[in-house]
Amino acid sequence: MENLDLQEIRGQLDGIDSQLVELFERRMKLCGDVAEYKIGTGKAVYDAAREKEKLGTVTGMAHGDFNRQGVYELFSQIMTISRRLQYGILAGHGQCLDTGFTMVQELKRDHSRIVYQGVEGAYSHAAALQYFGDDADVYHVPSFEDAMVEVEEGRADYAVLPIENSSAGAVSGNYDNLVMHNLYIVAETQVSVNHALLGLKGAVLSDIKRVYSHPQALMQCSRYLNANRQWTQFSVENTAGAAKKILEDQDIAQAAVASETAGRLYGLQVLERGINHDKDNTTRFIILSKSPVYRKDAGKVSICFEGLHKSGSLYNMLGNLIYNNVNMLMIESRPIVGRSWEYRFFVDVEGFQKVLKKLDLIFVLELICGKMPQLLISIIFPMRLC
C-alpha cells in the first residue's frame, strides 16, 4: 500500500463519506416509495422476514468478524431509520395510532374518593391532601396493593402511592404492583420529606434502644441512625404507623422515624429534627385511576415493556428515543418473576403530545417487545411542591 499522509487519508475518507450520504438519501427516497406502495396495498411497514433476510445478505458481504458485526449494526440502524420515515408518511396520510387514552381538561374531583396506604399523618396522606385539597374524601388501607385493589374494584376513584425518593431511590414494590393491576397513572405530586426522631413525652435520646419506621425512611436517615449503634432498627409498613406504635406501646425505649406532623397527631415529642441526610429529600407520588385518561397539559409519558432477551434489544429501544428527539427522564428495571435474569423496564419520557405523535416510536417499541408496550402514565404539569 502506498504511503499516504494524514491529510490524504482524511481526503479519501471525506470522499467516501460524501458517497455514503448520497447513497443514503437515494435509499430514503426509495423507502418513501415503498411506504406509498404499502399505504395503497395495506401492507405492514415492518416485515420481519424481509429484514432478517436483508441483514443476512449484507453481513455475508463483509470480510472479517469485526466488519461483519459492524455491517450488521449499521444496516440494523438504517432499517430502523427507514421504518421511522415510513411511519411518518403513514401519519401524514391520517393513519394515526389509537392509544386508548381520552384527553380531559382536569381530573374529576367532585364526589371522588381517594385511598392511600398507611394511617393518618403518613407522607402518602400528605400527598393526597396536597394534590386533591384539604377537604378531599380520603381514607387509608394497610398495604400499597390494597390501595390498588380499592380503585380496581371501584370503591375508590384514585389511589396515591409513592414511587420514587430522591435519596433512597425507587419504591420497587410499587413498580411490580403496576404490572399486576389494570390501572393508569394520571398525575403525580412531589412531597418534601423531613424526618424527625419521635419518642414518648419525657423521653431523652439516652433512653432509646429500638427505632421503627418504613424501610425507605430508615435508608433516608441511615447516616444518623447508624451513628447510634446502640439502636436496633425495625421496619414497619409506614412512618405514621411507626409513630402510632410508639404511642400504643408506651415503651420509653422505643422511637419512630416520621414527620413532625405525625408526632403531633400521636402526641409524641421530637427528640431530633431533620435526621435525613439529604436535606432536599423529596418523594414522588403517583395518582392511579381505573380510567385511561390524560390531562390536556400532560407533560410526561411512562412506558412499561419487556425487551427480547438478546443482545442489543435495550440499545435498540433507547436508540429510537434518540432518533425521535425524545428526552428520557428515568429508567428503572425490575426482574420478571419466573424468568431468571430477564427484566421488565419502566421508562419516563418527556412530552406527552410529542411522543404519541411519533408513530414510529410506538411501533418500534411494539417491534422490540413483540407486543404493544403498556402505556402506563400521563403525568400532569405543573406540579405543586409542599
Explained architecture:
By secondary structure, the protein is of the alpha/beta class. It has 3 domains: 6-92, Up-down Bundle (Chorismate Mutase Domain, subunit A); 98-109 and 156-191 and 287-386, 2-Layer Sandwich (Alpha-Beta Plaits); 196-272, D-Maltodextrin-Binding Protein, domain 2, CATH 3.40.190. Helices cover 42% and strands 25% of the residues. The chain has 13 helices and 17 strands. The protein has helices spanning 6-41, 48-61, 65-92, 123-132, 144-152, 172-180, 215-220, 222-226, 239-249, 260-265, 313-323, 352-356, 359-369, and strands spanning 102-104, 113-117, 137-141, 158-165, 169-170, 184-192, 196-199, 210-213, 232-235, 254-258, 269-272, 282-289, 293-295, 298-306, 328-335, 343-350, 374-380. The strands form 4 sheets. Strands 2, 3, 4, 5, 6 and 12 form a 6-stranded mixed β-sheet that branches. It is elongated, with a radius of gyration of 27 Å. The relative contact order is 0.14. Mean pLDDT is 85; it is low at 364-386.
Q: Strand tally, please? A: 17
Main CATH class of the largest domain:
Alpha Beta
Helix content: 40-55%
| CATH architecture descriptor of the largest domain | 2-Layer Sandwich
- What is the rounded distance between the termini? 70 Å
The total domain count is 3
Structural class assignment: alpha/beta
The sequence of SSEs as H and E is: HHHEEHEHEEHEEEHHEHEHEEEEHEEHHE
Radius of gyration: 27 Å
Mean pLDDT: 85
Number of continuous helical runs: 13
Strand content: 15-25%
Q: Under CATH, the topology of the largest domain is which? A: Alpha-Beta Plaits
Largest sheet: 6 strands, mixed
Low-confidence stretches: 364-386
